[in-house]
Amino acid sequence: MVLVLLLVPEGSAVPHPPTRPRSALVVFESMFGNTGHLTRAVAAGLRGQGVDTLTLDVAIAAPPERVTADLLVLGAPTHSGSLSDITTRADAVRQGASSDRMIGGLREWLVHAHPDTAVHPGGVPVAAFDCRAHRLDPHRDAVDGAAPSALAMAGLQGFVPHAEPEVFYVRDLLGPLAPGEMERAAAWGRRLARALVGV
Ligand SMILES: Cc1cc2nc3c(=O)[nH]c(=O)nc-3n(C[C@H](O)[C@H](O)[C@H](O)COP(=O)(O)O)c2cc1C
């Protein structure tokens, strides 16, 4: 048997490994562009705190491989009180969204997404936000919506909740975003980043 000894001079501290920058993957769906705008603001908030951040649009993304990032962030519009499906996306297309966006949504992406437990034995943390319309969501504290649904699905896939679901508003079905929502999204991204690095 070969014994490997780690030689540390008596009295000296064991050196800490250098802290590496944290990484985040923000995966989003957007039929009319509003969740896309919010995603850019969330990503800017994360990057502003030094988190190496990639964004991925499910309409053009390849099927997911194992997620190796330190944080997964999910963003989607609320459709009929939940994540969209092919029927609600077809409805959005009838209302002017591009037909390229109809086939795959965040729900379908999540079915194939798993955390890379070889890189993160404790699991990959996940956070989620959704975009919804003021006039269709009069009960602001309702538990339903795309973000709670996305978090529940992600939990079943082995991701670990990192934050409460967050909600942003459009003024009407097609948009635009309600005033101040881009700033609120950037601030949420900063908060996620700070919780990730533990400061
Ligand atoms: C088929 C359909 C169903 C919707 N259902 C809801 C709903 O239940 N609650 C709500 O607040 N907004 C609802 N909306 C409004 C969407 O949330 C809104 O279009 C979306 O937030 C805009 O974001 P996007 O531009 O990223 O698609 C619905 C929209 C569509 C097209």
Automatic annotation (TrEMBL):
| Residues in Flavodoxin-like domain copies | 24-193
What InterPro entries would the database entry show?
Answer: Flavodoxin/NO_synth (IPR008254), Flavoprotein-like_sf (IPR029039)
What Gene3D superfamilies does this protein map onto?
A: 3.40.50.360
Please state what the protein is called: Flavodoxin family protein
Q: What is the organism field in this record? A: Nocardioides fonticola
- Provide the taxonomic classification: Bacteria, Bacillati, Actinomycetota, Actinomycetes, Propionibacteriales
